Amino acid sequence: MRDRFWELPLKSLKPDEWEALCDGCGKCCLNKIEYEDTNELAFTRVACRLLDGQTCQCSSYPNRHDYVPDCIVLTPKKLKEIAWWLPATCAYRLRSEGKPLYEWHHLISGDRDTIHRAGASVQGWTISEASVTEDDWDDYIIEDLA
């Protein structure tokens, strides 16, 4: 990968650089409730059944669409359409807005656990969607993902 590739325009990133940009927070794997009448979006602490709540990684990333067909494949083009539902700390969102990565990002710190120590991931506080019915998701709404 190129030196400091994360500072380049997103559309110029190579596939491995794009994947490496992910900060590993797990926040995009949280289920959201979209209220059709107001278009508001509420994040819940109910996570995709494939999210490992300790590592904040997908337990079947290469095959995730076999289990979760509507899992979004994030691309620079799609990012423009859906950036509003990504958390404010998301590396993809930050870079699309021309902002720098946080110091706890593994590309800056050199350590993938820095994000967890900084409290910027979902490590240890999610509940799997396998154990909560969709009708009960509103019981798990969280206030802020910053």
Gyration radius from CA atoms, angstroms: 15 Å
- Tally of structural domains: 1
Mean pLDDT comes to 93
β-strand number:
5
Distance between the termini: 29 Å
Structural class: alpha+beta
What is the spatial order of strands in the main beta sheet?
1-2-5
Order of helices and strands: HEEEEHHHHHE
Residue fraction in strands: 5-15%
Q: What is the tally of helical segments?
A: 6
Biggest beta sheet attributes = 3 strands, mixed
Protein described:
The protein has 146 residues and is an alpha+beta fold. The protein has one domain. It is built from 6 helices and 5 strands. The strands form 2 sheets. A 3-stranded mixed beta sheet has the order 1-2-5, with no helix packed on it. Strands 3-4 form a two-stranded antiparallel sheet. The radius of gyration is 15 Å and the shape is globular. The mean pLDDT is 93.
